[in-house]
Amino acid sequence: MVSLAAGTSGIETWYVYGKDKYKFELGGGCTGVIAPGLYPLLRSGQINGLIGGLRGAAEYEVLIGQKGRAVAGMDAQSATHFAIIVLVILCNVFYLLMKTSRKQGEAR
Amino acid sequence: MAFELLLGAWVATGLTLFIFTFLYQDNPLFKLAEHLYVGVSVGYTIVKTYDTVLIRLIYEPMVKQGDWSLLIPLGIGTLMLARYVPNVTWLSRMAFAFIVGVGSGLAIPRIISSFILKQVEDTVRPLVSIVQGEPVFTYNLLDPSSNLNTIVLLIGVVSVLFYFFFSIEHTGPVRVAARTGILFLMVAFGAAFGYTVMARMSLLIGRLSDLIEYADPQYGRPSLWLGLATVAIILLWRAQRREQPPDTG
Lengths: 108, 249
Prior knowledge:
- Chain A is mostly helical.
- Chain A contains 4 helices and 3 strands, in the order E-H-E-H-E-H-H.
- Chain A has one domain.
- In chain A, strand 1, helix 1 (11-22) and strand 2 form a beta-alpha-beta unit.
- In chain A, helix 3 (53-64) crosses helix 4 (69-107).
- The mean pLDDT of chain A is 90.
- Chain B is an all-alpha fold.
- In chain B, strands 1-2 form a two-stranded antiparallel sheet.
- In chain B, helix 1 (3-20) packs across helix 2 (28-64) and helix 5 crosses helix 6.
- The chains are: A mainly alpha, B mainly alpha.
- At the A-B interface, helix 1, helix 2, helix 3 and helix 4 of A face helix 4 and helix 6 of B.
């Protein structure tokens, strides 16, 4: 079975009270927030597959050869992530420069 | 186009734009959308619970199928409501004890099996693979099942456990292990936060995709007209607030 439920009674619940006891195949799709918590289950083979967030949905669409809304949304998401990474790097550079100039000011 | 689709498009567009007005300031349009959201979600939950639990799990099995043994769990559940009657509050303790006991008995063995034993089994993997009778050590960091990743995983788990072991002082080699654990925790939390950012961005992309779709003439251009109406209402509200200063008494 594939669990696409959001919220509390999702993949973890299906695994704990379902697959672990009754031994059936289990895959799932979840939001990006929950996905990191489920990767240990995927790595250990406790679940057969995981679609995590928009990226996971885009990977699935590419896998089955039916590109749709998820692949279409990846352009915007990649651009946003790139912008966030650039801003994080810039802010860290500014922070280090300010810290260095403050230390030089104190040394004088 | 069907009336329901048109109505759905206009309502979705309007509520999305009302929520976005919070980016400017808290305002009556945002409050309207917020209260609608809370009210509709609570109402939906009540109706869903009534249908799923009361009708399908209690009424139909008892009355239509004659399973009167359900009176026992129904009685235990009703006893919980005794909490609200001061003279018989003690009756609710029996119901809580039963529910907590059964819940713990069901949950604890399953969770220990799923999240502790299975994860320990996966953590303690062979450090060397046997391929055609020869020991092979695989280096590919991108492959979760490689032997190098097994070592990284083992170091991560042990060092993080060292960090959370507060019964001994973190000095000398224990401090090195604990510091390594902190590094692993920082990487893990950073990755989790990155996924959270990705999830929020994808929600925004979904909302904006709908706004773009509903700007189409076949829907009556709700994005355009409701966008203009929202801006006009916010400007009017701001002007009204300036004319009537808030009460200070």
